[in-house]
Fold this sequence. Notes:
Largest sheet: 4 strands, mixed
Strand order of the largest sheet: 1-4-3-2
Distance between the termini: 24 Å
CATH topology of the largest domain: Signal recognition particle alu RNA binding heterodimer, srp9/1
Amino acid sequence: MDPETPVRSLTPDLMVEDLEATVEWYRRVFDADVVATLPADGDEPPWWAQVMIDGAPLMFQRRDSLEGKLPNMEGVSIGGSVAFYLDVDDAAGFHDDLVSNGVEVTRELHETEFGWRQFAAADPNGYTLWFGEKLSEEDAREIGQRYRTYHDDLTDDGSGRPAQRQFDEPSKRWG
């Protein structure tokens, strides 16, 4: 890529069937702010909208509009092939809030071997929203030890004793 023409941002533009219902769902569930719609005059129903969720932009576009502008999008299924990862401060709290709002949880709250607390949910269009909270180094180390598998056939010195594996600090693996 030419350094003179950097990418300034990357904003998903999600195909949806019902734009108004989608925007309302994101407003209710995430307290999203609607920052723009097209057409802007309000004489006809909007076919595109942009919302902001805690400073992160997200665009939605009605199927008929997107297919008309991008012929390669004609007939594609909505939702199933994209997962959005949302880094949050309190995954358990977020999980509880979404459940209380009637949101479909597709993977329950769990802790990963790489030191995150995560869960997944679906939006009304079938897009997967994957939520994660980075745990403290101490918690991550403890979780990693629980997930670690030791194999008797792995040895350090040929003695038959199991090899001692060192736990990678999550920050070294995942930043």
